[in-house]
Specification:
seven-stranded antiparallel sheet; five-stranded antiparallel sheet; 15 helices; binds flavin-adenine dinucleotide
């Protein structure tokens, strides 16, 4: 018997037959995420788990046989984090997708890891509640994936990232407790400091410490009133970056402050025909959700700041349809550009005062390497996504894009930034992370991983 068939037989002893995937045509798409050119190994099997008990069986079996477990949500990751490694079990959590509890009295919800972000938002909205984290992948990505990557999004600027909304979780772990044991971490209270913050450790750990099987989410009351949108058009990206720095300096905190360049707007318009005129080199899209006169004053201040920063024009709107078309364009930019050819997505984050300098460096590096770039950004967070677009099948263009990608990381580090603001280290940022972090910090991280997963079965080779 091959190692793979021994593993599959052991898995099948504790799982209904329909959970296990061995058909190579089905396994192949389960074995990678959306990260372009991130290497993926050949999985021995996939398991579509439907309960925590099934996850426990998979982890126990893999630990016994020394096989790796690669957890997977929706596979929308952009760092290779969910990519298979040789001989692993890809553990697909997307079938565990229920919202099991909504507690309006305590502003929390309990969800399974495969629940889709937007489905959770919709479920809690029925109770007048709001789950703010809104990665642009919210229609597809899972809460488990969001937790494992500490996903950011558009409204993080004002409302925080996934980490700020995870009160507690259940995870199937190994190490100091037996492999396959399920543990409860965190709490249901708004405050709580009993013990080390293990929830904080698991959030953003990219499946390297265990498999998340349940998440207790903190909620907010649903927002009131109609948000105001402020749009500024700029003659070049760096001017838009200067406006971002000024907005921060003036202490303005819109709910959303996104940047889109002409290439992105044009790609979305060519695809979806939303009626957007891509006449400016860059647009800044701000959303102010403070209700009443204070909101109006905030929107005026945003508009004035953009005008002071040499915007070609600035418009304010409370017209939902017009504003939504622009926000749709922001959300659709990535898939729209993917239609043009393979897209390598960058995710650097720099201090906000350095946004103009980083945008300048991105342009300079891209020009020197002859790489085509389109840029979207959670600009208010300093989190920039230059997208490197390459013609299909052009190896030289691919090599140039990959070299530019690494140079962007070095430029961000030199400006006091980080190699990944929200997509995670996965495979694509492993070298960059090692260039960024203090050696002592790296040593502490490997010590934690060694303590919690001495057999190194949880998503090895990632993070
Ligand atoms: C169009 C598009 C827009 C995007 N916009 C954003 C954005 O605005 N902000 C942002 O942060 N990201 C964004 N992303 C990246 C991606 O959507 C996020 O990283 C998301 O959190 C991944 O969720 P997923 O369910 O697809 O996870 P996957 O890609 O399946 O997995 C991601 C990581 O989480 C681990 N994992 C998944 N589930 C579990 C679990 N239950 N237990 C333990 N580990 C687990 C995997 O092993 C992997 O390391 C975008 C991606 C796309 C394609």
């Amino acid at each position: 018997m091959t190692t793979a068939s021994v593993l599959v037989e052991a898995l099948s002893r504790g799982l209904p037959g329909d959970r296990i995937v061995t058909d190579p045509d089905v396994l192949a798409p389960m074995s990678h995420d959306e990260a372009e050119w991130a290497p993926a190994g050949l999985a021995a099997a996939g398991v579509r788990a439907r309960s925590e008990a099934e996850v426990q069986h998979v982890v126990r079996t893999c630990a016994d046989l020394g096989a790796a477990v690669v957890p997977r949500g929706a596979g929308t990751g952009l760092s290779g984090g969910a990519n298979a490694v040789g001989g692993c079990v890809v553990l697909d959590l997307s079938r565990m997708n229920q919202v099991t509890e909504i507690d309006p009295d305590n502003l929390l919800a309990v969800v399974q890891p495969g629940a889709i972000n937007n489905d959770v938002k919709a479920a809690v909205a029925e109770h007048g509640l709001w789950y703010p984290p809104d990665p642009a992948s919210a229609p597809w990505s899972t809460i488990g994936g969001n937790v494992a990557t500490n996903a950011g999004g558009l409204c993080c600027l004002k409302y925080g990232v996934t980490r700020d909304y995870v009160l507690g979780l259940r995870a199937v772990v190994g190490g100091p407790v037996a492999y396959g044991e399920a543990v409860r971490l965190g709490r249901r209270t708004t405050k709580g400091v009993a013990g080390l913050d293990l929830v904080g450790l698991f959030v953003g750990s990219e499946g390297t410490l265990g498999v998340v099987t349940e998440v207790t989410l903190r909620l907010r009351p649903a927002p009131v009133g109609t948000p105001r949108t402020v749009v500024g058009a700029f003659a070049d990206l760096v001017s838009a970056g200067r406006a971002v720095a000024r907005i921060t300096r003036r202490g303005l905190t819109p709910a959303v402050l996104e940047l889109l360049d002409r290439a992105c707007l044009q790609a979305v318009e060519d695809w979806k025909h939303l009626g957007i005129q891509a006449d400016a080199a860059a647009l800044l899209l701000a959303r102010v959700d403070t209700p009443g006169d204070a909101g109006a004053a905030e929107a005026d201040a945003m508009a004035a700041t953009m005008a002071d920063a040499d915007a070609i024009w600035v418009e304010q709107s409370t017209d939902d349809a017009e504003a939504e078309a622009l926000f749709d364009a922001r959300r659709l930019a990535y898939p729209a550009l993917e239609r043009l050819g393979p897209v390598l997505t960058e995710d650097v984050c720099v201090p906000r005062s350095k946004v103009p300098a980083m945008l300048e460096q991105i342009a300079a590096i891209a020009a020197r390497r002859g790489v085509q770039i389109a840029t979207i950004a959670h600009a208010g967070d300093g989190n920039l996504h230059p997208l490197l677009i390459t013609p299909p099948g052009d190896d030289a263009a691919r090599a140039a894009a990959q070299a530019a990608f690494e140079e962007f990381l070095d430029a961000a580090i030199a400006l006091g930034g980080t190699v990944t603001g929200e997509h995670g280290v996965g495979i694509l940022k492993r070298d960059g992370m090692r260039r960024e972090l203090d050696p002592g910090s790296l040593a502490l991280q490997s010590a934690v991983r060694q303590a919690l997963d001495p057999r190194a079965i949880f998503n090895p080779g990632k993070g």
